[in-house]
Amino acid sequence: EAAVTQSPRNKVTVTGGNVTLSCRQTNSHNYMYWYRQDTGHGLRLIHYSYGAGNLQIGDVPDGYKATRTTQEDFFLLLELASPSQTSLYFCASSVGTGENTLYFGAGTRLSVL
Amino acid sequence: GQQVQQSPASLVLQEGENAELQCNFSTSLNSMQWFYQRPGGSLVSLFYNPSGTKHSGRLTSTTVIKERRSSLHISSSQTTDSGTYLCALERGTNTGKLTFGDGTVLTVKP
What we know:
The complex is a heterodimer. Chain A is mostly beta strands. Helix content of chain A is 0%, strand content 50%. The relative contact order of chain A is 0.34. The A-B interface holds A 31, 33, 40-45, 48, 50, 58-59, 88, 90, 92, 94, 96-99, 101-104, 106-107 and B 4, 30-31, 33, 35, 41-45, 48, 86, 88, 90, 93-103.
């Protein structure tokens, strides 16, 4: 079973604060994704990457930066956090796209006060 | 408008009853996937089903492209099936970009 580990699991920050969410996968998957999920809604794609050093823009990228430093590690950065970014964040990975299974981390719950 | 619409928004069953969850999409489809989200929040992939019917245990997924719909059938529901079921379509060919529906919250009572 593919392992995707997110940290921290919970984070509280203030408006204007600086936050980094971390994601590590241990199966050398090519693709990694950052999604956000707001209460009562499905997931929305923020950024994704298909390899170290690569970054692709998702559907809701405003206010977020991401970096893929290695095959295993994908980071999501909020440099000036706003209350609208309060959400549940999921990282996921897959070998490829299409029929390749998506494996999710346990999620990071972020509150911006 | 929303590209992926799921119905019903919520469903309550008695254990042993069957469930039929629907996913309708308004854009062209390259692939359809179904996910289960546990009450604690974690997600697991259930089906990749771009067309036709697939089975996995008590679960059956059917996608009919020309009717722009996909369904998830759960037979003989169990309390452990409780959670949220999400469908997602992939836009473009092998882009990895999924658009999710808002989900169906299923509660199975003993």
